[in-house]
Amino acid sequence: MDIDKIISELSFKAVRSGGAGGQNVNKVSSKVVLSFDLNVSQALSDEEKLLLQTNIAARLTSENILILNCDEDRSQLKNKEIVIKRFLEIIKKGLFVPKVRKATKVPKSVIKKRIKDKKNVSEIKQSRRKPNLD
Questions:
Q1: CA angle 126, 130, 134 (to 5 degrees)
Q2: d(Cα 19, Cα 127) in Å, to the nearest integer?
Q3: Rounded to an integer, what distance in angstroms lies between the CA atom of residue 95 and that of residue 42?
Q4: What's the rounded Cα separation, in Å, for the pair 75 and 89?
Q5: Alpha carbons 60 and 87: distance in angstroms, whole number
Q6: For residues 126 and 129, what is the distance between their CA atoms, to the nearest angstrom?
């Protein structure tokens, strides 16, 4: 995965932010909308695309486009940086493959120790009983 190549494939759109903010909100487009088309991307291999389609399926549209918004800051440039950082985190988490768990056997020494301890506890409990005088 080449980060610079992926970033070059991103498309950005500046939109007017909603919500409180006074008159400035009505005239400044500080909200940034990032969109990334997974099918068209040439920075990712086919295996990586399949992995992302399964791991981040909930975030993708029906056309496999990832759309992220950011309107945290009043500066369009800062919002762009924040949304790129978020995008890269999502991609890295989506490409993460967990290790396969290897089944292991219980060692014979552990089994022997457990049985020995059980016998020991059994003998202790038997010694506590009342003697049978029959």
A1: 110
A2: 79
A3: 16
A4: 21
A5: 12
A6: 5
